[in-house]
Design a protein that fits this description.
By secondary structure, this protein is of the alpha+beta class. It contains 3 helices and 3 strands. Strands 1-2-3 form a 3-stranded antiparallel sheet. It is elongated and about 45 Å long.
Length: 111
C-alpha cells in the first residue's frame, strides 16, 4: 500500500533510524505442518530507496525446512520455556516464525 509522502522523514526524525523494515505475512498455517510466508522490504529512511527485499515461504512439511528449524531451535532455546526437544519448534507458531525471520535476515542481510 502507498504510504504517506512524509512518513519516512517523520520516522527518521523521531526514531533517528537509517532504515525502516516493512513486513507482510503472505501465507500462514499455524497447525502442524506449519507454514509461514514473509514479504520484507528494508527501505532507506533518508530517501525511500529499497535496500533489500525478501519474499519467502517456510513450509515445515519440507524436510530441509524442518531440519533447519530444528537446528535453529537447538542453537537458540528459549530459556525456561524450552523443553530441550527440538521438534517443539515445529509445533509452536511463534518459535517457527522466529526461525523464519532469522533465516531471512541471515540470508538476505548479507547481500
Amino acid at each position: 500500500e502507498p504510504i504517506p509522502h512524509d512518513l519516512l522523514a517523520r520516522i527518521m526524525a523521531f526514531y533517528r533510524c537509517d532504515a525502516v523494515l516493512f513486513s507482510h505475512i503472505t501465507d500462514y498455517h499455524p497447525y502442524p505442518p506449519m507454514r509461514i510466508g514473509w514479504r520484507l522490504k528494508l527501505v532507506s529512511a533518508l530517501n525511500g530507496d529499497l535496500l533489500w527485499s525478501a519474499d519467502e515461504i517456510f513450509d515445515a512439511s519440507e524436510k530441509p525446512v524442518a531440519t533447519s528449524a530444528r537446528l535453529y531451535y537447538q542453537a537458540h532455546q528459549w530459556g525456561s520455556s524450552a523443553n530441550g526437544h527440538s521438534r517443539s519448534i515445529l509445533d509452536s507458531p511463534s518459535r517457527f516464525s522466529a526461525y523464519a525471520i532469522a533465516s531471512i535476515v541471515q540470508t538476505y542481510g548479507k547481500k
